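Quick log. Single chain, no ligands specified.
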Amino acid sequence: MTILRDSNTSVTTFANVTEKVGDYLICAALDILPTENISVVSPTGVEYQGVREAQEVCAVSILRAGASLENAMRRGYTGRLSFGKILIQRDESTSLPTLYYSKFPTDVESKIVIILEPMLATGGSACQAIETIKAKGVPEENIIFVNILASHYGIKKLFERFPSIHLVTAAVDEHLTPSCHISPGLGDFGDRFYGTSE
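-> predicted structure:
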């Protein structure tokens, strides 16, 4: 987190560290998945009683920054995986979210949905994304929100509206700036990951 927060970190290093943090987060999220018992035979010919995921997974990226966690999702999950996309833009003057686009698998309601979004500031975009996913028939308890950095305010807002979701995050910051950015934060995640900052 220190490397990600450092304003002197290069785009390449920022992206590489994001991948590493993403691997940890996805592993933690996958531990939440419901499982069922399965028996396999090991190379020594001994039967082993193990488990496997009981439901398929759909990872939903909140564009554009959420796509930064997709590779970690592909590396971490060994089952049948599908992806959805949501485009939500925050109005910088009002901090209110607007939904522009969403696309999900046709059977998304039968899956565990893992939302990929590196930053949770005010919770506006996250709440909009969850509302959109729930409108497709996904039960609230089947939604896992994976995030690199959250604010206390955003977490509180998220769980006030959606108490049954799961949240996996790497760090929590105490404050928001007057412009509703996380403080101390790490800047605009998308700009730093994609190298588009001015």
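The helical segments are 2-5, 11-30, 70-76, 124-134, 152-161, 189-194.
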